[in-house]
Amino acid sequence: MVDTPTADSPAEPDISHVNPADEKTWFGHPRQLARLFSTEMWERFGFYGMRALLTLYLTQHFLFGDREATGLYGGYTALVYLTPLVGGYLADQFLGSKRAVKFGAILMSIGYFVLCFGGQTATPYAKIDGQRYEVAIEKTAAGEQRYVLDAGHKQLIKGNDDGSITLSENGQTVRTIAKGGFVSEADRSPFYVMVMLIALSMVSVGNGFFKPNISTMVGELYRPGDSRRDAGFTIFYMGINLGSMLSQALCPWLAVAVGWWAGFGLAAIGMLCSWALIQLDGGKLNGIGEPPAKAATGRQQILIYIGALCVIPLFYLLYINLMAAEPAPAGSGLLGYVASLSLMGKLLFGTFLIGVPAILVWSFFAGDRREFQMMMAAMVLIVFNVVFWTLFEQAGSSLTLFADRNTNLSIFGWFTMTAGQTQSFNALFIVLLAPLMSMLWAGLAKRGLEPSIPVKFGIALVAVGCGFLFLVWGANWADSSFKVSVWWIAGLYFIHSFAELCISPVGLSMITKLSIARIVGMMMGVWFLSISVAQYVAGVIAQFASVETVGGQVTNLKVSLETYLSVFTLISEWAIGLGLLLLLLSWPLKRWMHGVK
Question: What is this structure's pTM?
């Protein structure tokens, strides 16, 4: 996950009138931390519960193809990590953190509730050489099977290794359709697609108000220099992972056992609990997250809320444009690829590719040699950060689809997990590994052996690549139905969780330490922009792992397994290669950082 808060805030709030050390404590910390811990836990419960379902919901309920589903998922998560830039600014300048958090919580909970209304499952059909045929779905003891209905005949659909499709009846081949001649489509309600996209837009906007400001409120509990601050944020981080672990286990289970609406409904209830903890605080949070000295008037606040609501249809249009984007024609090159990007992709990449060099040019003229070198180091690490989260965030898209299609999800024969529940492995391992990693770094630091920030980033990249290679290696033991054991997926998440702990806790802190003081806020924006770009690119990478489906079901599991393994192998090689490159660059980067640790 990429939700680690930072204990190093670029601007300390004035709380000289509060002395938390004189008040009752919670595990040695201000008692308000317990309420903020619970608030964040329930908010992450809702967010990650919904995220665990989204890709599966798109492919199994709306019957979108892999390319459309993973692209939409990438666009959604990109906006989720981009909107906090604006939400944090509005809270700092006009609303105050507490009001922003309340508004964001309400908007997100409504968005989750709206997702409960998905209408009937889309109806699949197929186009064979341009002619439409209805598709029937029948459940058997071995699972579901898809049939083409042709003049009263039911013809079983089977994908072949070469990409062609065979239609058979009573065990006899009726016809074989060459690769590309069989196109799977679905009749889905435009109204319910609109409802779903509006819900995603509401969550994206609401998250922008909630995410940056709940961490700001935690920071306000401590005076500048309070030695308990880092430990407080560590406890707060545990709330993030506890909430995500619980929701990623419960929401997917409810979606399978009861229906999609139940899974999304539970996420909405979690979000409402988060809102209630702030709204009904009984005065316990008085003085925390209050509006700035020159706060917006009541009328101005209403205008800000109305403006935020007006962004929802804008995001809806961005999602529509994203879904309509066609892949670049073969041989069109880099320019053709850029031209084929959705409007969202062009805006993200354009802002990042222009913003990074522009800030460096400004730093060259505005700062001294030392400051410029520190900014160069920060920008290099930001670029490698994009690579890390691009690969790590396959969890919600290609890895979830792999778990659904090519993984035996039985747990010792006692029970069977759902594909969405596999994402809970990450949160579980973070909870288990975080204290151990903290002790490891502390022990190495005492001996003067703690790795530098660039080395930790390099280790993270190598590790995320090794996680994919571990899964690829495990595929050697796939069973006759081309499914691997769930424990290989668990092993991947274990390695990825270790990698996350090497990069996530130090990223934001690194930005505050290396940035020129006058533009720390802007550099924070670039850091979150890099994560947003990574989320979008993660969706693009997942599209390369797209496989042929009919009515949400893969036509050939052997081809599916080979496709996923091919993509996972390729991205692991790139990750390890770039990680090793960063390890080599760590020596000059360390000099540029001028003692920053």
Answer: 0.88
